[in-house]
Design a protein that fits this description.
The structure holds two protein chains of two kinds. Chain A is an all-alpha fold. Chain A has two domains: 5-73, Orthogonal Bundle (434 Repressor (Amino-terminal Domain)); 87-120. Chain A is built from seven helices and no strands. In chain A, helix 1 (5-16) packs antiparallel against helix 5 and helix 2 packs across helix 3. The radius of gyration of chain A is 18 Å and the shape is elongated. In chain B, 49% of the residues lie in helices and 10% in strands. The longest helix of chain B is centred in the middle third of the chain and has 18 residues, at 92-109. Classes of the chains: A mainly alpha, B mainly alpha.
């Protein structure tokens, strides 16, 4: 297992602020194993943590962006809301879900490139 | 379980303890802040993380354990009761369990890696070749620095360095 980017962010903030994981757990009103599970990528970062951490560490804009990015990259689950999706969107979401575990890096990069082209155009 | 590794003497372990103090800029005069050391230790060592797990995730007689995955990443797993006891109560035995695991990683990083594929039962490998003895000895040398404790009583060592009675008694044997 390796630390998530969120875990790495927290580790650095704790060192800078002379804190330990128990202090993080107290701040966020959760148990130490819960914080640990989140930092180690076994659980998603709860949404409400962002504002608490920004306030506690008095993060500037750059640091806030870094935290948001770290949270995004540390997600263990992503939910798609398909209730208003068109049929072709539903098909692609379901196909992606089915194929996800077998996805290799080359295919993933090709897909990202394709999606980025679509956004740029 | 224990592993056969390259040998080192007690004096050699003491020198490694000195390097550890210097590397993490820790005072030898006071109790080592074991829990506070976890984040800086993992950061400095690289590819090392720790995981505070629910008590039932490890066997009842396992307070903490270090796992090494196929990519060479270490995870120090620590039971929540051990972590909390070490941090909130400064319990010597619990502090020792955590430091012991960090010592396993530190020795490994210094090249004291398993030399044989198979593992051995505890106390069957000659001390200087034993990964378990090396971690235990280094843990003792870090938690109770030799020069500072050599003229102290067991009671003084317990109070000054927040270690268990057993650990302090063990220190007086060396």
């Amino acid at each position: 297992m390796s630390y998530t980017r969120f875990g790495e962010f927290m580790r650095i903030e704790r060192i800078k602020n002379h804190e330990v994981m128990a202090n993080t757990a107290e701040l966020l009103s959760v148990s130490v194993p819960f914080v640990s599970a989140v930092e180690n990528g076994k659980k998603n970062v709860p949404d409400e943590w962002f504002d608490i951490l920004v306030k506690h560490y008095n993060l500037n804009e750059g640091e806030r962006n870094e935290l948001a990015q770290a949270i995004e990259e540390s997600k263990t689950q992503i939910k798609f809301n398909l209730s208003n999706a068109k049929e072709f969107q539903r098909r692609v979401a379901i196909q992606f879900q089915r194929s996800f575990n077998d996805l290799d890096e080359e295919t993933a990069n090709a897909l990202i490139e394709l999606f980025n082209k679509k956004v740029d155009s | 379980m224990d592993y056969f590794t390259k040998p080192i003497s007690r004096i050699g372990i003491r020198e490694i303890a000195d390097a550890f103090f210097d590397l993490f800029d820790i005072s030898r005069q006071n109790s080592i802040p074991v829990v506070d050391l976890l984040d800086p230790f993992c950061k400095k060592m690289g590819n090392v993380t720790y995981d505070i797990v629910e008590d039932n995730e490890l066997d009842h007689n396992v307070p903490a354990v270090t796992e090494l995955d196929n990519d060479g990443n270490f995870t120090i797993k620590i039971k929540a009761c051990v972590y909390n006891g070490a941090y909130y109560n400064q319990t010597g035995g619990y502090r020792n369990h955590i430091m012991h695991e960090m010592c396993h990683v530190f020795m490994y990083k210094l090249g004291y890696t398993p030399r044989l594929e198979r593992s051995f039962s505890n106390n069957t490998i000659e001390a200087m070749y034993s990964a378990e003895w090396q971690a235990k000895a280094l843990c003792g040398e870090i938690m109770m620095p030799y020069e500072e404790t050599k003229n102290m009583s067991v009671d003084e060592i317990c109070k000054r360095y927040n270690v268990s009675l057993l650990s302090a008694q063990q220190r007086k044997r060396y």
